[in-house]
Request: fold
Amino acid sequence: SDPYEVAHTIALNALVSRAKSKGELLAHLKTRGVEDDIAQAVIFRLQESGLVNDREFAAAWATSRHNHKKLSKRIIAGELRQKGVLQEQIDEALEGIDDESEYRSAFDLGFKKYNTMSRLAPDVQIRRIQSLLARKGFNFTVISRVLRELELSER
Reply:
């Protein structure tokens, strides 16, 4: 059978579970043994038909990861970079997340964590909230503001 059609079918099947970036799709086709020029042609056709669009993918990924996983812009940017999205498209996708909404996410996370630790010593509470927020990629300024609002740190 035609290797182009086989590659096209592989690509469409890969897109069933969730949208993918051009880089992810290229990597997937490569692991399935599709030659590079055929993979490029398939991806070009999918972009033409609107099934692969890194700009939309990046925006949707950023919104989803920020709202549901409460990740910082820094972590989301790293994820998108790993998926082969161009920096310009990453910046554009992250414009939708302002500093205040990033802080709200950090605070919500910190507050939720704080409510599970009422019996622990304050220094333990501080340490656990700091490490949770750091793992989610929030910077020191955001973390200290959260701790101040939770009244865990000296002002």
About this structure: Residues 69 and 153 are 25 Å apart (CA to CA). DSSP finds nine helices and no strands in the chain. The longest helix spans residues 99-114. The chain has a mean pLDDT of 93.
